[in-house]
Amino acid sequence: MRIYGNRQLKTLPGLETRPTTGRVREAVFNIWQNRVEGCRWLDLCAGNGSMGAEALCRGAGFVVGIEQNAKACAIIRQNWEKVASVEQFQVIKGNVLSRLPQLAGQTFDFIYFDPPYDSPLYPPVLSAIAQLDLLSPDGEMALEHRPEQESFELPSGLEICRQKVYGNTALTFIRRLESGV
């Protein structure tokens, strides 16, 4: 797997994680392209860390990744150390729902959430993000999912701003409701 600048990343063998395809990564960074420099990025269900690595390569100021699989966490660290200094990132091992509260008080300009597609994590993680106020006022979150999963029950204060389909992958972009709406 290669990312921005033709950098090679490690991946876990087998089907333990499902790395975001190059086409989807490119689309996300084309959409967010002029806003990544210096941003704070949160990568949930980070897999091999390709989205966070891409963000670091494109100038993100700080990246946090949460991943449950211990082997994947080791690979994320190795991948991110190739593209950034250890002061620019944090890898948190554990269940995303139990680990999100430790980020309370922080905000992120971009949140990328890519759980297993059949996972029941979508609603509780969206609620936790809203409750913990993790998305910055001008930030956006992207959810990766199957195209046939068209709607998400959003907690108060969040809204869908766009949806895109790339083959077998769909992205739903979410932002905070503008004040006064």
Any key phrases for this structure?
Rossmann fold, 7-stranded mixed beta sheet, globular
Structure description:
The structure is a single chain. The strands form 2 sheets. Strands 5-4-3-6-7-9-8 form a 7-stranded mixed sheet. It has a domain at 21-27 and 37-142: Rossmann fold (3-Layer(aba) Sandwich). By secondary structure, the protein is an alpha/beta fold. The chain is globular. α2 (50-57) packs parallel to α3 (70-83). A hairpin with a 3-residue loop joins β1 and β2 (7-8). The chain has helices spanning 22-31, 50-57, 70-83, 96-99, 122-132; strands at 2-3, 7-8, 40-44, 62-67, 89-93, 108-113, 135-145, 158-166, 169-176. The termini are far apart. It has 5 helices and 9 strands, in the order ββαβαβαβαβαβββ.
Concise structural overview:
This is 16S rRNA (Guanine(966)-N(2))-methyltransferase RsmD. The chain is of the alpha/beta class. It is built from 5 helices and 9 strands.
Topology record:
Layout: E1 2-3, E2 7-8, H1 22-31, E3 40-44, H2 50-57, E4 62-67, H3 70-83, E5 89-93, H4 96-99, E6 108-113, H5 122-132, E7 135-145, E8 158-166, E9 169-176
Helix pairs in contact: 2-3
- Biggest beta sheet summary: 7 strands, mixed
Strand content bin:
25-35%
Label the CATH architecture of the domain at 21-27 and 37-142.
Answer: 3-Layer(aba) Sandwich
> Helix tally?
5
Encode the helix/strand succession as letters: EEHEHEHEHEHEEE
Low-confidence stretches: none
The name of the CATH topology of the domain at 21-27 and 37-142 is: Rossmann fold
Helical residues, percent: 25-40%
Described by the principal axes of the CA atoms, the overall outline is globular
Spatial sequence of strands, sheet with the most strands = 5-4-3-6-7-9-8
Write down the CATH class of the domain at 21-27 and 37-142.
Answer: Alpha Beta
InterPro entries: DNA_methylase_N6_adenine_CS, RNA_MeTrfase_RsmD, SAM-dependent_MTases_sf
Keywords: Methyltransferase, Transferase
GO molecular function: methyltransferase activity; nucleic acid binding
Pfam families: Cons_hypoth95 (PF03602)
